[in-house]
Amino acid sequence: MRDKFALLLLLLVLGGIDLSLGRFQFSPVALWEILWQGPAGEMWVLVVDLRLPRVMLAVGAGLALGLSGALCQSLFRNPLAAPEMLGVTAGASLGAVLVILAGAQGLAVTLGAGLGALGATAALIALAGAAAGVNRLILTGVGVSLSLGGLSGLLIAQADDRLAGDAILWMTGSLNGSYWGRTALVWVIVLPLWLCAEAGRRSLLRLELGDDLARSLGLGVRRARMWLLLVAACSVAAAVAVVGPVGFVGLMAAPFARALAQILETQRTGPDLAGAAFAGAVIMVIADLMVLGVAPYALMPIGVFTGVLGAPLLLALVLRGARKEVGVWG
């Protein structure tokens, strides 16, 4: 529990810093005074109506991506598994690209991305089969992702330059243009999914033991895997539909939570879904702070900075696995 409290405290501190930065910067005391004064204050609109939705959107999307990443790594029994392997991100990108190239903007893009993500999820389940094992799911997900990603690239290459630029920018992932309606959308979806994931935690723990042992313990493996896979896919779909395909967050969240639990010497049994969700939110807010630090006057896509954070971690995980195989690493 100490690790969850530490992550929550870190998230609150980073969120407060995120609210304070930008073109107009505030000290902690000034930020508290703005919130205390309420709507009558001069800076209320800036902080509460413009900045707070962005921070809450980063937290909500991070929760969804962290939860999805932890589910994928447990389901596939692989610490390098990421939500992108399901093909959902590529499906959302294709849906958004089709809408953008048709000339639509705003909520229509979000709806198109959501439908594309659900379509990719349906394709994954249909092609892999309801009784598919872990390896078949991974290969099918990668195939769906590559196919849909290639189709998106083909459409962009043949599109008008302005529309193609808009599509490429969306595919980088961004928190820009956040407002309360957009923020509420991801929270309304991710909270019930989180509850569903926690309800299936015992099944997830048994699945980590292997299919045969899970069946011997009385678990309906096929039904449990499909249910948890659907929760993971819908979680990443909720995030990607709202902020775009932000990479590496799902991959980083669970290892970050595990590392913190080891530092704090917290006892942990089975997949730490809550820890991974909080860690995903922390990573998203850190990436947003990097955006504000580098370009406070012309906000860059947040996906650029999650890539900067995630690529070294991916290399570290690969090197750690290689050292374990030769008996060098702990």
UniProtKB/TrEMBL annotation:
<dbReference type="InterPro" id="IPR037294">
    <property type="entry name" value="ABC_BtuC-like"/>
</dbReference>
<feature type="transmembrane region" description="Helical">
    <location>
        <begin position="302"/>
        <end position="322"/>
    </location>
</feature>
<keyword id="KW-1003">Cell membrane</keyword>
<keyword id="KW-0812">Transmembrane</keyword>
<protein>
    <submittedName>
        <fullName>Membrane protein</fullName>
    </submittedName>
</protein>
<feature type="transmembrane region" description="Helical">
    <location>
        <begin position="55"/>
        <end position="76"/>
    </location>
</feature>
<keyword id="KW-0813">Transport</keyword>
<dbReference type="GO" id="GO:0005886">
    <property type="term" value="C:plasma membrane"/>
</dbReference>
<comment type="similarity">
    <text>Belongs to the binding-protein-dependent transport system permease family. FecCD subfamily.</text>
</comment>
<feature type="transmembrane region" description="Helical">
    <location>
        <begin position="85"/>
        <end position="104"/>
    </location>
</feature>
<dbReference type="GO" id="GO:0033214">
    <property type="term" value="P:siderophore-iron import into cell"/>
</dbReference>
<keyword id="KW-0472">Membrane</keyword>
<feature type="transmembrane region" description="Helical">
    <location>
        <begin position="137"/>
        <end position="159"/>
    </location>
</feature>
<dbReference type="InterPro" id="IPR000522">
    <property type="entry name" value="ABC_transptr_permease_BtuC"/>
</dbReference>
<dbReference type="Pfam" id="PF01032">
    <property type="entry name" value="FecCD"/>
</dbReference>
<feature type="transmembrane region" description="Helical">
    <location>
        <begin position="227"/>
        <end position="253"/>
    </location>
</feature>
<dbReference type="GO" id="GO:0022857">
    <property type="term" value="F:transmembrane transporter activity"/>
</dbReference>
<feature type="transmembrane region" description="Helical">
    <location>
        <begin position="179"/>
        <end position="197"/>
    </location>
</feature>
<feature type="transmembrane region" description="Helical">
    <location>
        <begin position="110"/>
        <end position="130"/>
    </location>
</feature>
<feature type="transmembrane region" description="Helical">
    <location>
        <begin position="273"/>
        <end position="295"/>
    </location>
</feature>
<keyword id="KW-1133">Transmembrane helix</keyword>
